[in-house]
Structure formats: C-alpha cells, structure tokens
Amino acid sequence: MDELSALELAKSAGDAGEIPVGAVIIDSTGKLLAQRENRKERDKDPTAHAEILALKTAATTLQNWHLNECTLYVTLEPCPMCAGAILQARLRLVVYGVDDTKTGAIRTVINIPDSAASNHRLQVIGGILESACRQQLQTWFATRRRKVN
C-alpha cells in the first residue's frame, strides 16, 4: 500500500534527523515510479522536500515531466513550493495524510490548486492514515524539543 510506503519513508527521514515526510508516486497502472523522503538537512538544500524529489525521480523514470496519469501519496499536506511543483507536473491526484496548519497549500492554509493562479485542476484526497501521520510528526517534534531543552 502506497500510503504505508510513504509512512515508512517518513520514519526513515525522521530517523536521519529530517522532518518525517515521505512521498510515493505511482502511475495509472499502480507501478511505482518514485519513493523519496525529506533530505533538506542531509543535502543542505531548501528544495529537497520529499514531494519535489519524488517528482524529479518520476519525471526521470518516465522521461517526461508531464505526470498527468500519476498519483502522489505524501504523509503531510504539501507546502506552497511543493504545491506549485505538483501543478507544474500536472499530477492527476494527490493523496495526503495530515493537514499542515502552518504551511499547507493544498487545502488548509491556502488552496493553490483551486486558485485563479492554477493552470491545472488537481484531484485531492486528504486525511488518509491521518492519525498515524499526525502521531509520527508529533512524536518526532516532541523528541526534538526534548533534545534541545
């Protein structure tokens, strides 16, 4: 199940000191095209979000930046940067775990896909494995806060 794969990737990212976010992209037949995790800290790259890395990998795999028959599964609602890249890639569907009440740009804080600035209509399903995704993030942040204090 792709949602569970994204959760496993998120755990791996968290174990490596990254904010635990994982992303998986499949094509219309269910074939795995990409599975990536956050790598901002390790790569020293502000754009190394799981979604961006997965989009790049899927496009390279398909040899086409049009990912219009693909689905992205991600544990956390994408930020504005990732939402923009998702629209540029013309993804068919985004399935995410938990809303991001600080930077969510798919539905929660701002809604880039449904805005006048969007050149693509994106299907979105939120709240898949929501409690598991939320718990993973809350546990990671709580552990990080304890280490700092």
From TrEMBL:
Domain of life: Bacteria
UniProtKB keywords: Hydrolase, Metal-binding, tRNA processing, Zinc
Binding site for Zn(2+): H49, C79, C82
Catalytic residues in the record: E51
Catalytic activity from the UniProt record: adenosine(34) in tRNA + H2O + H(+) = inosine(34) in tRNA + NH4(+)
Segments forming domain CMP/dCMP-type deaminase: 1-109
SUPFAM superfamilies given in the database record: Cytidine deaminase-like
EC numbers, comma separated: 3.5.4.33
Cofactor(s) this protein cannot do without: Zn(2+)
InterPro entries hit by this protein: APOBEC/CMP_deaminase_Zn-bd, CMP_dCMP_dom, Cytidine_deaminase-like, MafB19-deam, tRNA_aden_deaminase
Group of enzyme by EC: hydrolase
UniProt remark on cofactor binding: Binds 1 zinc ion per subunit.
Pfam family, one: MafB19-deam
The protein's role, per its UniProt record: Catalyzes the deamination of adenosine to inosine at the wobble position 34 of tRNA(Arg2).
Family affiliation: Belongs to the cytidine and deoxycytidylate deaminase family. ADAT2 subfamily.
HAMAP family registered for this protein in UniProt: tRNA_aden_deaminase (MF_00972)
Subunit structure: Homodimer.
PANTHER family reported in the protein's UniProt record: CYTOSINE DEAMINASE FAMILY MEMBER, TRNA-SPECIFIC ADENOSINE DEAMINASE
Name by which UniProt lists this protein: tRNA-specific adenosine deaminase
Species whose genome carries this gene: Nostoc cf. commune SO-36
